[in-house]
Amino acid sequence: MDSTTLLLFLKAALVGISIAAPVGPIGLLTIQRTLERGMAVGLATGMGAALADAVYGAIGAFGVGWIIHALAAARMPLALGGGALLLWLAWRTWRAPLATSAASVSGGSDLLRCLAGTFVLTLSNPATILSFVAVFGALSGGALGPISPVSMILGVFAGSSLWWLALSLVVARGRHFFTPAWRRRINAVSAVALAAFAIWQWISALAT
């Protein structure tokens, strides 16, 4: 890997971190699931978003115009579907019994279910692709070399994955500081916030 490719990879990694880092519905789910079910489930939750970021990054990096237009045309149903999924997750979080200890994961299917859920949830927000198209256009300067798109996609995935790993690790290490009462409050706040994100997504879609 030459210095130009490495620099592009590092810039894309910073893009991945900056997109993943703001506290949104995926961040709330990662924190809540890490507290209730352990680091593996929390990390799987975040990695679903990292994979979705990589998919949108690939679309932005390769400039696949017809996919961009198709996503823009499907903005309304995607937003409505994503909002419904958020409301369902909010209800489950509100109703979930408080775990007394970090639950062991019975198998890979549990992790895959968490990963797939947040993958779909992240993809249901097509506005994300506009950020990738704009940022990747600025990074590439309008002239991508044969390896540049791959370097940017890998960089976005690496940066996003690093953020979710750090978040789930920090929450898992500090889990013993949270009393059952505090964890009940966190679950309640997470449920309300997820519902608010759903309503905001619906309002934004209807307003455009």
TrEMBL record:
Taxonomy, superkingdom: Bacteria
Topology of the protein relative to the lipid bilayer: Multi-pass membrane protein
Key words, A-Z: Cell membrane, Membrane, Transmembrane, Transmembrane helix
Signal sequence annotation: none
Keyword Acetylation set for record: no
Annotated InterPro entries: LeuE-type (IPR001123)
Regions crossing the membrane: 6-29, 41-68, 74-91, 111-139, 151-174, 186-203
Places the protein is found: Cell membrane
Keyword Cell membrane applies: yes
The protein's name: LysE family transporter
Species this protein is from: Cupriavidus basilensis
